C-alpha cells in the first residue's frame, strides 16, 4: 500500500521518557503554566510522569505513528528533558537545527545520540547549530518558540525572552521562512512563554488563542495569514489555552492524519470546535496531567521528524 506524505504532519516523532521528572525551578519565573504538586512526594511525581510518557508513546504507536523513545536518566540535571521539541527541529530536504536555550539546565538536554539516530535512520544533509548564540543571550527555543507552517513557510512567533528577534531572523533566513512575530499575553498581562501553547497549525485548520494577542491589528493579520493558506481558524479562549488546547500536534500514519493533544485539552473544546477538527483528523487524546505540571503538554513532548527515511 502506498503511504501518503503530509508535509505538515510527520509520521515519526522523538520522545524522551524522564526517570526523575520534576517541574523546572529555573523556568518557573516566566512560565505561567507551570504548577507544583504539594500533595505528592517527588518520587511519586517522577514515577507518574514516567508512566504517562510510556503510555503516550504506546498510544501513538498503536495509531501507526513511529516513536523514537529515548531515556533521560539524569537525576536533577535536566528536569525538562521530556520536552525535546525545544532543542532541535527537523526539516524536509534533510535539515536539522539545534537551538539556543534560555535556562542553563535546559542546555544540557541537547543529545548527540538523538542526532546520531536521525543520521542513521533518515537522510540528514546538514545540522545547523544555533546554540553558539547562548553566550550572547540570544535564545530561540525551537518549535516551542516558533509554530511552523511547513507548507507556506511561515514561522509564527510570540515575542518572549525565549524567542529573540535576531535568532529568529537567522533561522528564517537560513531555512527560508517568513517570520511572523507578535506579542501575546495571558490574563495577568504576562508574556506567553512559548508560541506552541497558544497555537497549532495543522494541514486544514489552525487552533489559535487570538484573544491573547492584545494588538487588534496584529491579531487580524495573524488570522488573515492563516486563512490565506486555506486553513479554517478555530479560535480558542484564554481559558482553553490555560487547559493546553493550543498545545497539539498534527501527525500522520501514512494513511490518515491524527491530532495528538492532551485529554485535558480535548475536554476543554466545544462540540463545534471538535467537529471542525474531526473533519480532517482523528483525535488522539493522551493523559499527561503530571507532565502538564511543568507548564507544557503533548505538543511539547513531541519532536516531529520531517526527514525522509533511509
Automatic annotation (TrEMBL):
<protein>
    <recommendedName>
        <fullName>Amidinotransferase</fullName>
    </recommendedName>
</protein>
<dbReference type="InterPro" id="IPR014541">
    <property type="entry name" value="Amdntrnsf_FN0238"/>
</dbReference>
<dbReference type="Pfam" id="PF19420">
    <property type="entry name" value="DDAH_eukar"/>
</dbReference>
Amino acid at each position: 500500500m502506498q503511504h501518503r506524505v503530509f508535509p505538515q504532519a510527520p509520521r515519526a516523532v522523538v520522545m524522551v521518557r524522564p526517570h526523575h521528572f520534576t517541574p523546572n525551578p529555573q523556568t518557573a519565573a516566566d512560565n505561567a503554566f507551570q504548577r507544583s504538586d504539594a500533595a505528592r512526594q517527588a518520587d511519586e511525581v517522577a514515577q507518574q510522569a514516567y508512566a504517562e510518557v510510556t503510555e503516550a508513546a504506546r498510544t501513538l504507536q498503536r495509531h501507526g505513528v513511529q516513536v523514537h523513545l529515548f531515556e533521560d536518566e539524569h537525576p536533577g540535571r535536566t528536569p525538562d528533558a521530556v520536552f525535546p521539541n525545544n532543542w532541535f527541529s527537523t526539516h524536509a530536504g534533510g535539515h536539522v537545527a539545534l537551538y539556543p536555550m534560555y535556562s542553563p539546565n535546559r542546555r544540557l538536554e541537547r543529545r548527540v545520540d538523538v542526532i546520531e539516530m536521525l543520521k542513521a535512520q533518515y537522510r540528514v544533509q546538514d545540522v545547523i547549530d544555533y546554540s553558539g548564540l547562548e553566550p550572547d543571550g540570544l535564545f530561540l527555543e525551537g518549535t516551542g518558540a516558533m509554530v511552523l507552517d511547513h507548507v507556506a513557510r511561515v514561522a509564527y512567533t510570540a515575542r518572549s525572552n525565549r524567542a529573540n528577534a535576531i535568532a529568529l531572523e537567522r533561522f528564517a533566513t537560513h531555512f527560508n521562512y517568513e517570520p511572523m512575530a507578535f506579542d501575546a499575553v495571558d490574563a495577568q498581562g504576562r508574556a506567553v512563554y512559548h508560541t506552541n501553547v497558544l497555537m497549532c497549525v495543522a494541514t486544514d485548520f489552525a487552533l489559535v488563542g487570538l484573544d491573547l494577542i492584545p494588538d487588534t491589528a496584529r491579531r487580524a493579520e495573524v488570522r488573515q495569514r492563516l486563512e490565506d493558506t486555506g486553513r479554517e481558524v478555530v479560535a480558542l479562549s484564554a481559558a482553553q489555552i490555560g487547559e493546553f488546547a493550543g498545545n497539539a500536534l498534527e501527525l500522520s500514519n501514512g494513511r490518515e492524519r491524527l491530532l495528538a493533544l492532551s485529554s485535558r485539552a480535548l475536554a476543554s473544546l466545544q462540540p463545534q470546535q471538535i467537529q471542525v477538527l474531526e473533519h480532517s483528523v482523528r483525535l488522539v487524546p493522551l493523559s499527561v496531567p503530571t507532565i502538564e505540571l511543568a507548564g507544557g503538554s503533548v505538543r511539547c513532548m513531541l519532536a516531529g521528524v520531517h526527514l525522509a527515511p533511509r
